[in-house]
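Recall that a protein's primary structure is simply its ordered list of amino acids. Everything else, from secondary elements to tertiary packing, is in principle encoded there. The following example makes that idea concrete.
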Amino acid sequence: MPSIALAVTAGMPIFDLAVPCHVFGTDRPELPEGWYDLRVCGIGPDSGPVATRSWFAAHTPYGIEELITADTVIVPASADVRGDPPGELVEALREAHRRGARVVSLCSGAFTLAATGLLDGRTAATHWMYAALLAERYPAVRVDPSVLYVDHGDVLTGAGSTACIDVCLHLVREDFGSAAANTLARQLVAPAHRPGGQAQYIEAPLPERTDDSLAPLLHWATERLHTPLTVADLARRAHTSPRTLARRFHAATGTTPLRWLQAQRIARARELLEGGDLPVDRVAELCGLGTAANLRRHFTRAVGVPPHDYRRAFRARRPAAVPQR
């Protein structure tokens, strides 16, 4: 079982703590065996309960030692983005990273990771409200306020609030594959992957209308990725013009219809590459990218490795245990 340590510090927001607890700390018999071993680690001056924001306190027997030896360490949002994070947590994160742990921040937890130096020279995400402050306090970090998360493999930073769900689903996808992430997303009533980023929420957090949801259209399209769908096809299905559809699409997803379609085709290709031995040209047909050459070009651009290498790496990749001291 891959172990996950969740760092709990005084005053942290409840939501950022609750999401990883629900995702990684719930017994899920319908998902692959060897689900996560979650340990909530209290970081404080003594061994007593750690009071989070409002009415909750974390009563846990786990602390710094379990955090350092975990496979993955998650740092939820910080209680004070203008103050310094606990020094013992900063040192523990550095030690965990040196030992081979994957280190993840949620929302303003990026300030804690930045304090460790692990984000120096790297691109990082945080809540868009804090992006300017993070860049000001830690100029060696390249802050991208538009994305939902940034994954460097050993270090991952997520954006604000509900992006915690996106980050957790991404971790599940990396560790157990797309099928497990999709199953979990359905249980959470959340999209398995949101194309677009935070930018769609900065100026208009909520749509002005609720009677023109694109959900039926998106579901219809994902069931037909193997066909040569066009924007005109989508507009016809939505009973609107391509221009109007493009506006509605951007408001709902933060991206264009074509980019959304491409992201869904790549996601389907990942599922097919992970779950079977279909030839690459057949995978290309089933996900609507036509030819093996076309799949290789778009898949490599989106994922970073060619389909053959992705399949080989996924089958070889399993969470590596961090050696005990």
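The first helix runs from residue 14 to 24. The two ends are 19 Å apart (CA to CA).
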